[in-house]
Structure formats: structure tokens, C-alpha cells
């Protein structure tokens, strides 16, 4: 988990998320970086748009919570097609998030 935090910190500070920088952050925090985990994280994040993944991760709980909060006894059931579309959007958002965690 510390490697993901290091990557998020580097990204937030507009620093490149590369092996050297991740190792420095983990070391500065008092950890001993594992070469394999650092390489795996940097490789996994190489093709990920972190900003987009964070937006999707932040939007996913809102999208899931909004229908249940608005639903009431008088609310009509949604057609199956709409439910499938919503489920697909939620799955896509979660896939973006899961790519951050390797």
C-alpha cells in the first residue's frame, strides 16, 4: 500500500512516478523499498491516466449512493437496459481504480 501512496504523493506534487522517485519516497517514510513491487507499480501505472482514475474512483461511490438515496416506495423500477448501462459504468470505474492497485 505504501507504494500506491508514494505514487499518489508524487503525482500530486507533479513529480514523475518512476522507480527512483517511488523508492525515495518509501525510504524517506522509513520503509525499505522492494524492487519487485516498485517495478510492478511503475509498470502498472505506465499506461494509466492517474487523474482520470482518481475522478472515476471519486465518482463511483456517488453514482452508487445516489440511486438508493433517491429511491423511495413511489419510485418506479428502471428498465433492465438502464440498469445494465449503470452497472457497466460502475464496473468501468472500478476497473480504473483497480489498475492503480496493481
Explain the overall architecture.
The protein contains five helices and no strands. It has helices at 2-12, 19-28, 35-45, 50-70, 80-100. The longest helix is centred in the middle third of the chain and has 21 residues, at 50-70. The termini are close together. It is mainly α and 102 residues long. The mean pLDDT is 79. Helices cover 73% and strands 0% of the residues. It folds into two domains: 2-45, Arc Repressor Mutant, subunit A, CATH 1.10.10.1410; 52-69 and 77-100, no CATH class. Helix 1 crosses helix 2 (19-28) and helix 4 (50-70) packs antiparallel against helix 5.
Short description:
This protein has helices at residues 2-12, 19-28, 35-45, 50-70, 80-100. The protein has two domains: 2-45, Arc Repressor Mutant, subunit A; 52-69 and 77-100, no CATH class. It is built from five helices and no strands.
**Total domain modules:** 2
Shape field:
elongated
Run of helices and strands: HHHHH
Rg computed from alpha carbons, rounded to a whole number of angstroms: 18 Å
Give the number of helices: 5
Counting helices, strands and paired strands, the structural category is mainly alpha
Remind me, CATH topology of the largest domain?
Answer: Arc Repressor Mutant, subunit A
Which band does the percent of strand residues land in? under 5%
* CATH-defined architecture of the largest domain: Orthogonal Bundle
The percentage helix is over 70%
CATH class of the largest domain: Mainly Alpha
Please state the average pLDDT score. Answer: 79
Unreliable stretches covering 5 or more consecutive residues: none
User: In total, how many beta strands?
Assistant: 0
State the distance separating the first and last CA atoms.
Answer: 10 Å
The major sheet is characterized as:
none
Amino acid at each position: 500500500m505504501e507504494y500506491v501512496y508514494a505514487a499518489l504523493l508524487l503525482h500530486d506534487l507533479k513529480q514523475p512516478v518512476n522507480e527512483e522517485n517511488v523508492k525515495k519516497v518509501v525510504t524517506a517514510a522509513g520503509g525499505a523499498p522492494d524492487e519487485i513491487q516498485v517495478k510492478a507499480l511503475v509498470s502498472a501505472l505506465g499506461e494509466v491516466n492517474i487523474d482520470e482514475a482518481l475522478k472515476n474512483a471519486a465518482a463511483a461511490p456517488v453514482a452508487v449512493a445516489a440511486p438508493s438515496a433517491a429511491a423511495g416506495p413511489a419510485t418506479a423500477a428502471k428498465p433492465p437496459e438502464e440498469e445494465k448501462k449503470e452497472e457497466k459504468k460502475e464496473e468501468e470505474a472500478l476497473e480504473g481504480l483497480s489498475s492503480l492497485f496493481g
